[in-house]
């Protein structure tokens, strides 16, 4: 695939977005949209490593895509409380101040509208526009109305901000590629592939 360009992809949301535990990777977001478009059921993805190729360029020395995480701009933050469902009057008999059931009464932090989430990538403009149009919402609890997408703008930009920009990483990058930067950059150790998804 050719015709890669430096792109900025901005999602404008029309409902509050729950702050995710981890940054949203643009390549992961597009892979989800691609499986929807190709009508690949989730159960067929288990153990598969031959998924269709994304319209995003890969880094020359890595198999990773040149795609950043999402950078969020919002009007502010709100706190809400979310209690899991129980039948009848059971919730009134539960002690939510501690113990096992405390975990079922959770505080949720949301970003107040207007919310914009911006990604950067080296991709094919028309393909990126087609795939992003399939994304209805961003963040956790999307099926409950959070993070609904009102509009998407894909524009070509001059600089490549998909990998490293102004000496700062724009996505999760294995530390072995930049061991000399470990003292400068914030880094966390994580497994790129969850243990349950690894081939045995």
From TrEMBL:
Name used for this protein in its record: CRISPR-associated protein
Organism: Paenibacillus albus
